[in-house]
From TrEMBL:
Source species of the chain: Talaromyces proteolyticus
An example Gene Ontology biological process: D-amino acid catabolic process
Superkingdom of source: Eukaryota
Pfam families the record matches: DAO
GO molecular function, one term: FAD binding
Protein name: FAD dependent oxidoreductase superfamily
TM stretches of this protein: 12-31
Requisite cofactors: FAD
One Gene Ontology CC term in the entry: cytoplasm
Coiled coil: none
Segments forming domain FAD dependent oxidoreductase: 10-358
Family: Belongs to the DAMOX/DASOX family.
């Protein structure tokens, strides 16, 4: 009789857009003896200010720049764009919809001006057939010094997270709702219920565990019923942002928004809502005419999980207490794959980061590419 292969588990910590995307992608590499367990404090359709993904606008807006980090992010963003193209074409119920994106700049920084001059060597290159600079005449607003437009997508994030989770469960994934005190705990918990050995833990916890570089960026937006047919972002000369992001499948429109590093206030501020709506009624062409009246569904306050120096995507070897030890004296080396600190770009980088996680794990022999038949 052939020898039975002992079971193996890969644990993914987190059920935000990063954890769910990574878990779903890794699922496609599993052998029959392997399983993936998601362990998360928050799951889709639960609400917590510290669970960023359901609060995301979530539209895609390329970010030009010359740093190695931004160049890497633009590759992940391109990959995510392509994946969302496929998802939107295959299944409307995912809550991903492509539409026109417009950006207005009152005082554009040089990177944006350069882009408008030479799109093909920029982070907008993959959008190039749809990309164009908007003429000053069309803009009809003296305060706006640069306008660009391109084909992009918006995601109804609460719907999309539910869709990802459903796919993961239908593919045989296991989910445990649990708040971990440490990464070590994930190795023990993942092995329970006949999970065998935990081969690796993928840390998609948003902020990481005791990472001194992690910090939050508070975001306040307002969800309204008023429809708008495209997504529009305006960067003010004073550094503020205004945006309107339609939520596909008639989920309303997100009007935003603030970026407040280190602001832990969990409550919506009335004066912020007032400013956001006043600016939106001035600048954004909502359907249903003039008047500036908004039908407010709710205020949104969320914390973007940011990190000094940018997101962390890497493998770390850690020593954890072996399961067969009485006094904790025996330790064994294990692999943790970190993928957290996405700040304000988690949705638009999600599939690129998930691919990076998979590539790192393949390189380390933690998973194997499934042989094609
Ligand atoms: C107002 C607002 C607007 C935004 N707009 C956009 C946008 O337009 N486009 C865009 O790309 N991004 C946007 N973002 C950013 C985006 O939401 C984040 O980058 C993204 O959600 C991060 O995903 P994540 O999976 O890393 O983290 P999260 O969604 O926070 O998920 C972390 C997961 O880890 C779990 N977890 C954490 N600690 C533990 C623990 N100790 N034990 C067990 N589980 C744990 C949590 O419960 C959760 O399941 C916006 C964010 C906000 C707040």
């Amino acid at each position: 009789m052939p020898k039975a292969i002992p079971p193996e588990t890969i644990v993914v910590i987190g059920a935000g857009v990063i954890g769910l995307s990574a878990a779903l992608l890794l699922q496609s590499t599993l052998l029959p003896s392997q399983r993936i367990v998601i362990i998360a404090r928050n799951l889709p359709h639960t609400e917590s200010i510290n669970y960023a993904s359901p609060w995301a606008g979530g539209h895609y807006r390329p970010v030009p720049g010359t740093t190695a980090q931004l160049k890497q992010e633009s590759q992940w963003a391109r990959h995510t764009y392509q994946t969302f193209e496929r998802i939107a074409a295959e299944d409307i119920s995912a809550g991903v919809q492509f539409m026109r994106g417009i950006e207005h700049f009152e005082s554009p920084s040089p990177e944006y001006v350069d882009v408008a001059l030479d799109v093909n060597s920029s982070v907008y290159a993959h959008l190039s057939p749809s990309f164009r600079r908007i003429s000053q005449k069309e803009l009809a607003d003296e305060q706006v010094k640069l306008g660009i437009t391109y084909w992009t997508y918006c995601v109804n994030t609460p719907v999309y997270l539910g869709w990802l989770l459903r796919k993961f469960l239908l593919g045989g994934g296991v989910v445990k709702e649990y708040t971990l005190a440490s990464i070590d705990e994930a190795f023990a918990l993942g092995a329970s219920d006949g999970g065998g050995v935990v081969k690796a833990v993928v840390n998609c916890s948003g902020m990481g565990f005791n990472d001194e570089k992690s910090f939050i960026i508070r975001g306040q937006t307002c969800l309204v019923r008023n429809p708008i047919s495209y997504t529009l972002t305006r960067q003010g000369a004073d550094g503020t942002w205004s945006f309107a992001i339609p939520r596909p499948l008639m989920g309303g429109t997100v009007i935003g928004g603030t970026k407040q590093p280190g602001d832990w206030n969990p409550h919506a501020r009335a004066e912020i809502r007032e400013t956001l709506l006043r600016n939106a009624s001035k600048w954004f062409p909502f359907e249903g005419g003039e008047g500036g009246e908004f039908d407010v569904i709710r205020d949104i306050v969320g914390r973007r999980p940011a990190r000094e120096g940018g997101l962390r995507v890497e493998i770390e070897r850690v020593d954890v207490v072996a399961p067969d030890t009485m006094h904790g004296q025996k330790k064994e080396g294990k692999s943790v794959v970190h993928a957290y600190g996405l700040g304000g770009r988690g949705v638009e980088l999600s599939w690129g980061v998930a691919e990076e996680v998979k590539a790192l794990m393949l390189r380390e022999g933690l998973i194997a590419e499934r042989a094609a038949l």
